[in-house]
Amino acid sequence: LDAGMHPSTPVTLVENGTRSDERVIQSTIGNLWETVHSAGIEGPALIYIGLNEASRGRAGKLSSSADVVPFPVREDIQNAILRAAS
Fold it and tell me: What pTM was computed for the model?
């Protein structure tokens, strides 16, 4: 959020990926902490930022060619990143 992501940016959490007890949970950047806490995620977990519900396949798994939702970055931060990279 400090970098300028909108609080409604979608997030997908995958706990225990590829295991029989895998869980896929949808949230947003703004609600991420509350979601992790209320879902009782203890890990291991991957956090995909910018994945939306449409990126999931028929079986409820993430597709390998997921659509990524671009998120805004404040211009001043973007410029500082570009300066540091050059």
Answer: 0.59
